[in-house]
Amino acid sequence: MIKNHLKVLRAKKNWTQEELAKKVGISRQAVISIEKYKYTPSLELAFKLAKAFEVDINQVFDPEEEIE
Predict the structure, then answer these.
(1) What integer pLDDT is reported at residue 9 of this predicted model?
(2) How many CB atoms sit inside 10 A of residue 53's CB?
(3) Residue 22, Cα to own-chain centre: how many angstroms?
(4) DSSP 1
(5) CA–CA distance, 66 with 15 (Å, rounded to integer)
(6) Taking all residues of the chain, what is their mean pLDDT, rounded to a whole number?
(7) 8, 61 contact by CB (below 8 A)
(8) Alpha-carbon Rg of the chain, whole angstroms?
(9) Which end of the chain is more exposed for a tag (fewer CB within 10 A), N or C?
(10) Cα 60 to the chain's mean position, in Å?
């Protein structure tokens, strides 16, 4: 599973999981699952998350670092 930086990016924006979920059109539970590596988002959702944070997708998801 590819490492993500959702929690760190949310903290920088002072967003709750609920706020992020509303911005990208998913449930709070989905945000929790992505942060805990229980769910891998689709490519479309990954781009929506990057857009919400106003960063490149590689700043949200690190393809060089995998979680086992």
Answers:
(1) 98
(2) 21
(3) 13
(4) -
(5) 25
(6) 93
(7) no
(8) 11
(9) C
(10) 6
Whether residue 19 has pLDDT greater than 80: yes
Domains in the chain, ordered, with CATH? 2-50 (1.10.260.40)
Question: What does residue 67 show for φ and ψ, rounded to 5 degrees?
Answer: -100, 130
Q: Please name the amino acid found at residue 60.
A: V
pLDDT at 11 over 70: yes
The pTM assigned to this predicted structure is 0.89
In sign, the C-alpha dihedral spanning 66, 14, 52, 29 is: positive
Query: From CA 65, how far away is CA 62, in angstroms rounded?
Result: 6
**Residue 11 CB: number of other CB atoms within 10 A?**
10
Q: pLDDT at residue 37 above 80?
A: yes
